[in-house]
Amino acid sequence: MSSKGAKLAYRPFGLGAGILAGVVSGAVFKQVWKRVSGEDDAPDALQSEYKMREVVLAAAIQGALFAATKATIDRLGARGFTKLTGSWPGD
Question: Which Pfam families does its entry note (predicted)?
Fold first, then answer.
């Protein structure tokens, strides 16, 4: 399979991986936030009862967890795709 063909064939896998990463990282973040803060829900940027540092900290943790989860799932998906097709989807 050509490099361009592998990239095209991988797109549905990549889309599914992105959705899965969002779901998994959301669940992980909810648990992490609950343990860190003792609250069920993280502060939203527009909730006035939270201080700026709490809102920014929550966003930073959530972003880092999402990025790490997405990279992990993308890499595992690419490895699985390569085993199925013999082509690496990113090259």
Answer: DUF4235
pLDDT of 53 > 80? The answer is yes
* Residue 30 belongs to a domain: yes
pLDDT at 33 over 70: yes
90 falls within a domain = no
- Per the structure, how many domains does the chain have? 1
Tell me the CB-side half-sphere exposure of residue 30, using CA atoms within 13 A.
8
In sequence order, what E strands does the chain have?
none
Which residues constitute the domain of residue 80? 3-85
Q: Which two structure tokens, joined as six digits, stand for 56?
A: 């920014």
pTM over 0.90: no
